[in-house]
Amino acid sequence: MAGRILIDLFTTLDGVAQGPGGTDEDTSGGFLFSGWQAGYPSSGMGETVSQGMQGLDALLLGRRTYDIFAGYWPHHTEGPSGEIGRLFNRVPKYVASRNPDLPLEWENSHRVGEDLAAEMSELRAQHREVHVIGSVDFVHSLLAEGLFDELNLWVYPILLGTGKKVFDDGALPSILTLLEQPVADEGGVMLLRYGRTDRTPEVGTFED
């Protein structure tokens, strides 16, 4: 059975996925709200993220997210709270970049980006669950070419009005299917899990 490419994103209600985790994570384009997720603690987010990571056996990241992860997770592996760090250290890391001289110092890291369609097919053949976390610029490429199997969105009841969005104008027109009922915590943070299909939107007109 072929493996799956899963996209995991934290997003605001108006679709902003830029720089959720820290004030210096991504301020490109003059973005003023880097760290918006950290500024809105969620009582249920941690549990749903941990559950979603149980099948993960590879990471697929954009360059910026890879650098952030490589600077953080190898140093956060102790005790129960270090479970994700130990997992990320252990599994293969694939980094999307066209730079053949990209320095990859985090153990078990590999570059992809020459031929995404072929490389995603290879990753599905090698792994059960390849998770794309953050990496919104790279996610745009996957959405544009339909190179994913599942889209997991943790949606926060926040409006920012500016910043990099989950969906830009290049996303491949397609119909997604809801994989399970939405899960929400007391603060209104909601997990939405969608599966990709080969169906495309149709148009029509409502008649009286």
From TrEMBL:
Organism domain of life: Bacteria
UniProt-listed InterPro entries: DHFR-like_dom_sf, RibDG_C
Entries under Gene3D superfamilies matching the protein: Dihydrofolate Reductase, subunit A
Pfam families named among the record's database cross-references: RibD_C
Bacterial bifunctional deaminase-reductase C-terminal domain: residues covered: 5-174
Protein's UniProt name: Dihydrofolate reductase
